[in-house]
Amino acid sequence: MSARKVTYFILVLSLIFNSCSTTQKIEALKPLPSDDAPMVYNTKTSFVNMPLQITLKEIESQLNKTLNGEIYNDSNLDDDKTEMKITKTAPIRLIEKNGKIQTVLPLKIWSRFKYGTDFMGLNDTREINLNGTITMTSDVKLSNWKMSTTSKIEDFEWAESPSILVAGKNVPITYIINPTLSIFKSKIAKKIDEAIENSCDFKPYVLDVLEKMSTPFLTSEQYQTWFKLIPIEVYVTDAVLDKTQINMNLGLKCNMQTMVGLKPKASFDRTAVQFKAVTKVPEKLTANIAAISTYESASRIISSNFNGKEFASGSRKITVQNVALWQKDGKIIVALDMTGSINGTIYLSGIPNYNAVTKEIYFDQMDYVLDTKGLLTRTANWLLQGVILKKIQENCRYSIKENLDEGKKSLLPYLNNYSPMKGVFVNGTMSDFEFEKVEVTNKAIIAFITTTGKMNVKIDGMD
Questions:
Q1: Confidence (pTM)
Q2: What pLDDT sits at residue 110?
Q3: Which of 43, 198, 210, 315 is the most buried (most CB within 10 A)?
Q4: CA distance 440 to 446
Q5: Are 409 and 321 in contact (CB under 8 A)?
Q6: How far is CA 416 from CA 55, 92, 271, 410, 425, in A?
């Protein structure tokens, strides 16, 4: 072999050796995000059916707190020759009877009445004290979230026969008292109705429950996933008395969100929730949840997929040190910081999709970004091989299965005798989550999922 040929052969070997063993540096042009606008996405509203039961015992308890001590006072003697004060002497009892509420009210009556004639001043006044029980029946309805009743006094029952001492003799005066009380039947019944309405305004309780349910709570500590409910409208049907409780149907129209990252702020606004009366509420709970993965959190999870992994083609090897994601023109840009035979960052683009079997978000139609491809063609042609891209693409995915499972697991305690406040209990069931679609925004990748179920709320034992 001539010296010229030997020199040429050595030069070729040197080029091949250097091409195989030296580390090459990539300086690719970074595809910038489309813009930095706030995250905006469209989500379907959810509808939660919440049958509500309020026990008569609870209404009785609230009524006794509201209606206490003196419940009636008429101090005008001249209009009907009678003054009267009525004081509750024992707790009121409520009983269901033939579809109506029967109210039993133990009371004490102090009365002063004028008798005789005004002719030549021949009249006198006497005071009497009576102990007895009034029994009323009431029709029940719900109006503007207040339970109201229309009551009618059915009976007076005296612990002892009313009498008065006249000329040294006890003279029965039931015949005087009963007609006098009859005059005030409507007034006393109205007083009871007002007390029931004041003590049975359920809107504040409903708002308190919604505020508790709207507070974001952690569903997965590993993925820093939070669930948040945003009420929009509340519907209610007419109240129906069913033996020992009042039944009504509530319907909650709301948005549900699952957010990844820092705890979202509580944003419940009591004044913004609209209340509407309806004749019927759908029985099934339909939840449409937006599972939001910020690019920061998705990048962190995908970066962990590359830990300890090496990608090789012949003698050339690379490792991925870090992954970053962002959105550009409706596609996801995947930036891979790598070391090894090549140092630098390459950029891939793909379309997010969902694998219903593995419950993973992955990136379809993945390819090198054009600006990167031109540089790779000149400096590291082997990276363009489909086998390398396929291996990288297999790791550019993250599962939301645990998020969904954890989400459901974390929601179940809120459907198992959950008590957001004293005396309020929530129970229900929920089916598996089903994937609907993936959307890309400037701030996050959003997976929309749905579920169905049932729930009910019972009020019994509030303060």
A1: 0.60
A2: 80
A3: 210
A4: 6
A5: no
A6: 19, 33, 29, 11, 9
